[in-house]
Design brief:
By secondary structure, the protein is an alpha+beta fold. It has 2 domains: 179 residues, Formyl transferase, N-terminal domain (Rossmann fold); 132 residues, Roll (Methionyl-tRNA Fmet Formyltransferase, Chain A, domain 2), CATH 3.10.25.10. The protein is 27% helix and 26% strand. It is built from 9 helices and 15 strands. The strands form 2 sheets. Strands 8, 9, 10, 11, 12, 13, 14 and 15 form an 8-stranded antiparallel sheet that branches. The chain has a 7-stranded mixed sheet with strand order 3-2-1-4-5-6-7, with helices on one face. Strand 1, helix 2 and strand 2 form a beta-alpha-beta unit. Helix 2 packs parallel to helix 3 and helix 2 packs parallel to helix 6. The longest helix is centred in the middle third of the chain and has 21 residues. The termini are far apart.
């Protein structure tokens, strides 16, 4: 046995392939960090504990800190290795990486005779990159899914596809809701792939370059609304960030987007400009004019969180009356009645209350 250590590294790797199991149950090393990855780890742990013949042993690689994957692994007495891991020679058959955030080097990938699998929440090659779920929502995709692929060195999300499952995107679904659903679906697809991994590897297919798109990391710049350029539908998809704009030189966040609002202006001759504000009293919604209509929000975050009514009463009316003390706010009804209960309060264009470009 001591002669093994005198072999060249390439020969040792070949020998390990013959010594490792030729099918399930697998010796697994899991790489993950966040809540999306946690669903796959939970199902792998359950599989190991149930002796269902898929997972023989399970260890975890997690970044430092109180991340969901590390916390779960420690609570369930799984061996946790720090990143980057060392001393992996001959200990594992398959690696699994889910929402890990680090590019694995070729020398690490080669430690696993059956490679390293990745659970990715999109139908690759669409939405390669770190934020596929958000871009699915932001671009209004009607269909998405999960992909099990074999990772390759040097680049994210370009390896051959072993398994895919489609998932229709529900109307008005948020990125968080879609992520939760795809995390569960991806975990079950991973187990299905591991159950027949030999067959899946034989039938794997390279990704097509046709239809390949990139899903870059979400940045704060993406949250800024350009009222004259963006439609109600685009803003509604974007609000999961949440959205940011300015009012009187102050940065404010727009919360709880309700989508398109139907506004009946009191003066039909005056066309509202993008960024104009209207308060809908009966529904307690702050409506803002954008490229193709009005989009509503139930709350804003200025110095503190304010409802639409609080923002109207505490800021908009006070600003209007300070600038135009002799002018009353226009009162109109969006449904054509004039009872006190049905009135909406309009912040008129003539008051220069323009959210995106307010001039004091």
């Amino acid at each position: 046995m001591t002669g093994l250590f005198h072999l060249r590294p390439c020969c040792v790797r070949t020998l390990w392939k013959h010594l490792s199991t030729s099918g399930p149950p697998w010796r697994l090393l899991f790489f993950g960090s966040d809540q999306f990855a946690l669903e796959s780890l939970k199902l792998l742990t359950s599989s190991r504990n149930s002796n269902d013949g898929i997972v023989a042993s399970l260890e975890v690689v997690a970044v430092s800190g109180n991340v969901p994957v590390r916390r779960f692994a420690e609570q369930n007495r799984l061996l946790v290795r720090s990143w980057p891991p060392d001393n992996l020679d001959g200990q594992f058959d398959v690696g699994v990486v889910v929402s890990f955030g680090y590019l694995l080097k070729e020398k690490t990938i080669n430690k696993f005779p059956y490679g390293i699998l990745n659970v990715h929440p999109s139908l690759l090659p669409r939405w390669r990159g770190p934020a596929p779920i958000f871009h699915t929502i932001m671009h209004g995709d009607k269909l998405t899914g999960v992909t099990i692929m074999q990772i390759r060195p040097h680049r994210f999300d370009v390896g051959p596809i072993l398994n895919q499952e489609l998932h229709p995107v529900p109307e008005n679904c948020t990125a968080e809701e879609l992520g939760d659903t795809l995390a569960v679906k991806g975990a079950h697809l991973l187990i299905d792939t591991l159950r027949t991994l030999d067959e899946k590897l034989v039938n794997k297919r390279d990704q097509s370059q046709t239809g390949a798109t990139f899903a870059p990391k979400i940045t704060s710049q993406m949250s800024w609304v350009v009222w004259e350029d963006q439609t109600c539908e685009q803003i509604h998809r974007l609000h999961r960030i949440p959205l940011t704009t300015t009012w009187k030189g102050n940065t404010i966040k727009l919360l709880e987007c309700v989508g398109r609002c139907n506004i009946s202006l009191s003066d039909l001759r005056r066309k509202p400009v993008p960024g104009s504000v209207s308060f809908l009293k009966e529904s307690d919604i702050l409506a803002v004019c954008c490229k193709n209509g009005w989009v509503g929000f139930r709350a804003v975050l200025l110095k503190k969180r304010l409802t639409a009514a609080d923002f109207y009463n505490g800021y908009l009316t006070r600003h209007c009356r300070r600038k135009h003390p002799m002018t009353q706010m226009n009162v109109y009804s969006s449904v054509g009645t004039r009872s006190r209960e049905d009135y909406n309060i309009e912040v008129s264009i003539k008051y220069d209350i323009i959210i995106s470009n307010c001039h004091d």
